[in-house]
Structures are given as C-alpha cells and as structure tokens.
Amino acid sequence: MGRYLLRRLLHTVLAMLGVSIGVFLIMHLVPGDPIRLALGTRFDPEVYQALRSRAGLDRPLLAQYGTWLSHAVTGDFGVSFRSGQPVGELLWQRLGPTATLAGAALLVALSIALPVGILSAVWSGSVIDRIATALSQLWVSVPDFWSGIMYILLFALVLGWLPASGYVSPLDDPVQALRHLVLPALTVGLISGSILTRFVRSAVLEALNQDYTRTARAKGLSRWQTVRRHVLPNAWIPIVTVAGLQLGFLLGGVVVVEVIFEWPGLGRLAYDAVIRRDYSLLQGAVLVIATVFLTINLFVDILCGYLDPRVRRP
Question: Which CA distances in Å does 304 have to 135, 237, 241?
C-alpha cells in the first residue's frame, strides 16, 4: 500500500506541475496587456512601467514562471488587477459556496443513482429498467442552463416556493441557505445523477453476470442477499471512481449554473475574471480548481486501492 500511495502521489504532483505550466503559458498567450486594461485608455507611461515592473511582467518568461510558481505553492497568487485585492483571499471566499453546491449536488446525484441504478440492473429488461434508462438519457441530454431557467420559472416565479437566485451562508441563516441551495443543487444534481445511474447499472449488471453470483444463487441465497453480499462489494470500484470524477467536475465545472443563479462560487469568479481579463485572478482560479480536482482523484485512487488490493498492483 505504501508503494502504491507513493506512486499515485508522484503522479498527482507531476500532473499539478503540468497544469501550472499550461495555465501560466495560456494566460501569457492571450492577447491584451492586463496592466493597460486595468489602467484604461488614458494612463501615465511612468505608472504603466512601474506597475509592469511590480507585477514582474518585464522579466523573462521563465523567471516569471519560477516566481509565480514559488509564490503559488504558498497560497500567494498575486493581486487582482481590477480590485486590487489579494487573489488568495478572493479564492478562499468563493471556495465555501462552491463546495456547498458541489456537495449538495453530489448528494442529490447519489440519492438517485444508487437505488435507481441497482433496481434497473437487478430487473434488467423490465419496465423499471426501460423507464430508468429513458429518463437518464433524457436528463443527460438536457442542457443545465435550460433546466435551471425552467426551475426558476416554475418554482420561483409561478409557484413562489423558492428564491430565484442568490446565496445565504449556512452560518447566518440555515433555513434560507437551504432554500437558496435547492434549485442550483437540483439543476446540477439531476444531470450528474443521470450519468451516475448509467454507470451504477452497468457495474451492478456486470457483477450479476459473474460466476460467483451464479454460485451464490445456486447455494440458496436470495436475490437481494446475493446483491448485498457479493454484487455490491465488487461493483463499488467503478462506482466510487465515477462518483469521484463527478465531484471533481462539480467543483470546477458548474460555471453556467453559478452564473444563472448568481451563486458566488469559483466558477462565477473565473467567469468574471475572463470577462474583465483579470489574468492573475483567472490563473489562481484555474489552478485552484485543477488542484482540487487532482486531489479528489488522488483520494479516490487511495480509496479504490483500499477497497480492492488488485488495484495496487503496478
């Protein structure tokens, strides 16, 4: 287990290093001067040169990357060109709302995917299976921006049950925080749940067709005893892997949903940074999202290695 853990940790560190290089180079290849954009059309050339020197943009590219990476490792991503605030503080403020939304959406997804996927696999070919497959395919094909707008129209404007947008911290008002969380969590969670349902069905169905399952049934175990004792323990590996990937996607890929519901998360922050061409803020946001995604994958790999020793083999 120790060698497996060390190997996965090394792969994660190398992947993070590659991501940092990509993020840094892409931001420097984007047309436009961030200092000039921050100052506007009229600016003092001396102030312009002083700000470029302060940001290190007048140094060689390799030296800029080395300085930026050494500071980023300590959590110092520089200063926002637009607001003048430290990028690390802005990212930290937005990380909580994004984690809250991602966790709630994953809870919705698993609440749907596990029971529906297992039932669909156990009764493969039945009416339940056909209905579950049709609904999962339908929900996967629905764009999140369209479903989000439909939920706002129905539950906020027509029925008036839930607020249309905004965010309330659970520490300030837990009830209002939950009411504001329901619609964005449903928008993301139902789509993610449809994807997970298909993977759960496939993993359970594959385990049901194995020889050990038929042997267990031949020994007199009931269908659900066989599923609980033999099928699910062998189907957890692909399910956990896909669930971890979905959580990483939810933490970094809900930009559209955060914009629609005015949710102050990392995705919304990265979107605003693109619109304003705030390169330092965008670099920090992308790097943090990628780091969180890779860290989640690392924990998923460790969990899979713990659940199944065969995964730890080189």
Answer: 29, 6, 8
The list of the chain residues with pLDDT below 50 reads: none
Predicted confidence (pLDDT) per residue in 143-184, tens digit: 888 888 898 998 888 888 888 888 888 888 888 889 999 999
> Hey, what amino acid is at 56?
G
Q: Where are the domains of the chain?
A: 87-140+182-312
Nearest to 187 by CA among 162, 158, 160: 162
Q: Quick one: which of 252, 240, 267 has its CA closest to 167?
A: 267
pTM score over 0.85: no
Q: How far apart are CA 23 and CA 278, in angstroms?
A: 14
Nearest-angstrom CA–CA distance, 246 and 241: 9
Angstrom CA distances, 237 to 5, 216, 233, 289, 306, stand at: 17, 21, 8, 25, 10
The architecture that CATH gives domain 87-140+182-312 is: Orthogonal Bundle (1.10)
